[in-house]
Amino acid sequence: MLRVHFSSQDWERLRIVSRPDPMWEMLLSLYMLGEASDETVFGQWRQRVLHRMPRESRILLDLVPAQGYSPDFLSPCLGGEDPTDGIDAVLNTPRGRIAEQLDLRFGDGPRPTWTRALARKESAAVRALGRSMRGYFDVALRPYWRYISQVAERGAAAARDGTASLILRLKDRPSVRSAPRTTVELAYGMEQDLELRGRGLMLVPAFFCAVNPVTFHDPSLPPVLLYPVAHQPASFLARAAAGSGPTEEVLRRLFGRTRALVLRTLSESVRTTGEIARVLDISVASASEHASLLRAAGLVASERYGNTVRHTLTPLGVELLHQPR
């Protein structure tokens, strides 16, 4: 549970940001990459990033686990569309703060050797961290940043229309006079109190925020609350790449009409043979045959679950259909 303690001054200083923050999105996307949640929306993105992620960027997976604490210094909240300034801020973090937060991340357990060098702020480790963040952003976020921004902006507009009440789970925003001090309780992965103490609160829409809001672990840092925005129940890659990649006519000439439609329907989500048949109004036998031919071409992968077979695009299939702008 996250308990956010407002004073009357905090309600006056409540601020809703319109655009996503690149450093927070980088951090939250690493969580999303490590934990297979919301497969419908993020599954194909996850598959694509794991396939294309530079080897040097995989050190970030040491710092950001699938669940639990990750160092606060990885997400300076600077705004903007490009992570350059944010990455510079990460690399300029004081050595003591880096060492303290790495201790929180790993505790008394084993830790990768390179993180010990980073805790000492050795130049080679700092440069490696910078390269890893730049390489990761270029593969995982930059190709889709325009779409990420559009979705986040819609979420921020909805928050403004509702005076942030939906985000903070309130029926009505308390007035300054009637509620000089208010505590808002939000679902969270751990027990934490956020004392605003007149500093106000900045609400930031977060594309890769899965379910619950997110904030800094360190209470002395500026009060920020990242909140999840609504996603359409379909792979966001298909929406982000709308209008790019091969046209329907090209796909039909390459594969035939029905197989092209099978590819398109698999670009939206993982489907069983029966679901393909129902969506395209064809027989199960025909759906199975088309999936088998696409599998033989390396565009589709199939896996049996009990009495059903589930089909999904391979990295090659994703690359074919979803060419980022």
Automatic annotation (TrEMBL):
Pfam families assigned to the protein according to its UniProt record, in alphabetical order: HTH_5
Keyword Transcription regulation belongs to the record: yes
InterPro entries linked to this entry: ArsR-like_HTH, HTH_ArsR_DNA-bd_dom, Metal_resp_trans_reg, WH-like_DNA-bd_sf, WH_DNA-bd_sf
Gene Ontology MF annotations: DNA binding; DNA-binding transcription factor activity
Keyword Transcription set for record: yes
Keywords for this protein: DNA-binding, Transcription, Transcription regulation
Domain of life according to the entry: Bacteria
Domain HTH arsR-type: 239-325
Membrane-traversing stretches: none
Signal peptide: none
SUPFAM superfamilies named in the record: Winged helix' DNA-binding domain
Entries under CDD domains matching the protein: HTH_ARSR
Protein name: DNA-binding transcriptional regulator, ArsR family
Organism: Nonomuraea maritima
